[in-house]
Structure formats: C-alpha cells, structure tokens
Amino acid sequence: MRTRFLLALPAAILMATGFGAPAAAQKGGWIEPPEKLPHAGRGDRTHNLDFLFGALKVAPDDTIAKAIEQRIWAQWVVSRSDTTNLLMTRVKTAIEKHEMDLAIKLLDSVVKIKPDYVEGWNRRATLYYMKKDYGRSLADLREVLKREPRHFGALSGLGLIMQDIGDDKQALEVYRRALAIYPRLQRIPDVVKTLQEKIEGRDI
Q: Does residue 6 form part of some domain?
C-alpha cells in the first residue's frame, strides 16, 4: 500500500493513513491513485474495467499488476465533467494548504453534482478518516462500494477502519474481499496472515 496520493498529501497525513508506517506495521493502508496515471482511453468504461479487473486477477507478477492497477485508477479518476474536474483541482489545492474542512466542502459539491463519480466519495471518505470521523468515512465508503464493489482502494480503507475500531474479524473479511479482486495488493497478504493468527488464537 505505498501508492502515492493523487493529492500530494503532507507527511503527517501519510502517516495517519498508514502510508508512512514502518514495514513491520500490522495494519493495512488507505490505497489512493498514483500521482501519475496513464491516459484512460476511450470506449465503454464498464467494458474496459471488466477487462482490466480480469487481467488484474491473473497478473503474473507485481510489475504487471501495478501497471494494470494504474489503468484501473485512470478509469476511476476521469469524471467526464468540466465542473467536477475544476472542483477536484480545488480540492487538491485545499489539501496542499492543509485546509481539510474546505476540501470536504468542495467534495460535498462534487458528490452532489455527480453522485456517480466514485472518486468524489472515495476522496471524501479518506479525508473523513484523517479527521477520525469514522461514521462519515464509512458512509462514503458504502457509497463507493455500492457503485463499484471492486474498488480495492475503498476496501482497503474499510479494512483499516475496522482495525482501528477493534473489529479484526470484519477487517479480515474485508481484506480477503480485496485480495480476491487484486491478489497482488501490496502489504495486505501480510496483514491477512497476522489477523488470521490473531483471530484463530481467540475464542470467537
């Protein structure tokens, strides 16, 4: 989970989301789009994503898997709306200035204007998580997964919240869902192994 935030987040925020955590950390991290993405290409987005997710599941190595992941993010981040693009640019600027409340207000407008744009919900869920507002973050993650059940970024965030609130069993289930979609997801296999050992050692 060391992909970079699209929004160039400061080090303190990276730590809060798990990106800056040491390799031995026992939690997952919140996956966000890389800073540079390939062109999304034309054609039917659903067809393109179906093809890419099929390829992601059988990727023979991490390098190929990462390249496919970037193409999936490229499909997700394209809004096809000039207004949404402008607002997302302002969100980026607000976060760079550490103006998280303003960024959230801008994202409120994004999800209102274009509710089918999953990255609006996903971005706001990330910011709510940073503010430790787990209720709102979870609500936004549900909106993401309702629209795109294969969103491994949202699943990683959901698993992280479950760990934070002490629900390791639910976290394990969510991480397994993410791995079924993206078997080469970074760090998650180790977290799953740790959670399995932890849960199996309990009376549940």
A: no
